[in-house]
Specification:
Helices cover 44% and strands 13% of the residues. It is α+β, with helices and mostly antiparallel strands. The strands form two sheets. A four-stranded mixed β-sheet has the order 1-4-5-8. Helix 6 runs antiparallel to helix 7 and helix 12 runs antiparallel to helix 13. The longest helix has 29 residues. The radius of gyration is 23 Å and the shape is globular.
Length: 430
């Protein structure tokens, strides 16, 4: 397996389309464990999930990462295959039954977006390949206690000291920081300029003096979010992306990608029902224990809610296809990302509420099987609680509606008397 782990699949744009599927299947036969392949043949992605422990997938994942298949449109120099979008779609069609989900989503969707758009060749060579193999995990240090929706008003400072920057401040709601090695960081380097003009974009290691990651447990009992304290943490100038003061422009590439990422299915990018959420609730609604409670498939109101949610999911899929079409055309994500984000937040909350309704009394009381909260909490309940964050993370629903109002409907911006004022002169609470 170690020797095979370094194998790159022999596909490029000189390979005829008719041969792509065969090459992918041959790679799968050589490298994907037999039990996963058999499950995919038997029942597709759902069957694979049942036989593949998370730890086993994470241990095997570098094999996938080094193949070039994780991001096939990326240049070969950075770990991709350098193929056209059409070839990438053929590859994805062959891989779909195996449920080979991409790990390190914040690295792939945010750090990589910034590096591919604005990074230097040296930065791309250094940081992109370990993102593909999940050997360096990433998070995003943007939001602050006093700068969430108004991200451009952030107060974390970075001051130049020779070939380094000294960073001091506090970030919050940082997803997966407790599991990450690096983060993309937005910091203020010119407080004398207006808020959007005085920001700079950095890549920072979380395993260094001056970085303190403190996990935050949310009401579902899990730990996804963190607060991160930066106390004179040093960042080499090599890890600055874009010119000083251009951070807002660089960050825009990551924010659009983040909205696209969380516009997929499930709570916070993780589908807690599985596959097409509303469709998979249908067999749940047929369970005898559900029907005994009078809230199953025999209830016409439940059937109507299920079909309405399924229709909404189809709309979400079509919207996401528009976003992917822009990406395949080499265009930056447009307002479609915000449409998908707003729609998905509401949709997933409705799906999770219906799952709890189908669970019945078990959604309000359950037996704890261990001493630690939330041990024993039903899957449906944790999903419902987690879905409350969908309208906040990745840009609040209100901010995304503002984007749509301005960019799609052509409505005027909200008045901001401090928009062009130096940041240091803008009044702040506290």
């Amino acid at each position: 397996m170690q020797e095979a782990a370094a194998e790159r699949i022999p596909i490029d744009d000189t390979v005829p389309s008719s041969e792509v599927a065969g090459l992918v299947r041959a790679w799968v036969e050589r490298h994907v464990p037999e039990a996963w392949r058999e499950a995919a043949r038997r029942g597709g992605p759902a069957a694979v999930r049942q036989v593949r422990p998370v730890g086993d997938y994470e241990a095997w994942y570098p094999v996938f990462g080094r193949s070039g298949l994780v991001a096939p449109t990326w240049p070969v120099a950075y770990g991709g295959l350098g193929v056209a979008p059409g070839t990438a779609r053929l590859i994805e069609t062959e891989l779909r039954p195996l449920n080979l989900g991409r790990l390190n989503p914040l690295g792939l969707n945010q750090a990589a977006s910034a590096l591919l758009a604005y990074g230097t060749e040296e930065q791309r060579q250094r940081f992109l390949p370990p993102i593909l193999t999940n050997e360096e995990v990433w998070c995003q240090l943007f939001s602050e206690p006093g700068a969430g929706s108004d991200l451009a008003g952030l107060a974390t400072r970075a001051e130049r000291d020779g070939e380094e920057w000294i960073v001091t401040g506090q970030k919050v709601w940082t997803t997966w920081a407790h599991k990450s090695d690096f983060a993309v960081l937005l910091a203020r380097t010119a407080p004398e300029l207006p808020k959007r003009q005085g920001l700079t974009f950095f890549l920072i290691s979380l395993h260094q003096p001056g970085v303190d990651v403190r996990p935050l447990r949310h009401m579902g009992g899990e730990v996804d979010f963190n607060e991160v304290f930066l106390d004179a943490a040093r960042v080499p100038d090599f890890q600055r992306v874009g010119p000083p003061g251009a951070g807002w422009k660089v960050a825009a590439a990551t924010l659009s990608s983040e909205r696209q990422m969380v516009a997929g299915s499930g709570s916070g990018g993780v589908d807690r029902i599985g596959g097409s959420s509303a469709q998979r609730l249908i067999p749940r609604s047929r369970r005898p224990d559900v029907e005994d409670g009078g809230r199953g498939w025999s209830d016409p109101v439940v059937r109507q809610r299920l079909m309405a949610l399924y229709s909404e999911e189809r709309i979400r899929d079509w919207t996401n296809q528009r976003v992917r079409a822009r990406a395949r055309a080499g265009l930056a994500p447009g307002p479609e990302s915000s449409i998908g984000k707003v729609h998905q937040a509401r949709l997933n909350q409705m799906v999770q509420l219906l799952a709890v309704d189908l669970l019945g009394p078990g959604a309000t009381a359950w037996e704890r099987t261990g001493p630690d909260y939330p041990d024993g909490i039903p899957f449906e309940v944790s999903g419902m609680l987690r879905s409350r964050a969908n309208g906040i993370e990745g840009g609040t629903t209100e901010i995304n509606k503002n984007i749509l109002a301005e960019r799609v409907l052509g409505l005027p911006r909200e008045p901001d008397p401090w928009l062009d004022a130096p940041w240091q002169d803008v009044p702040r609470g506290g």
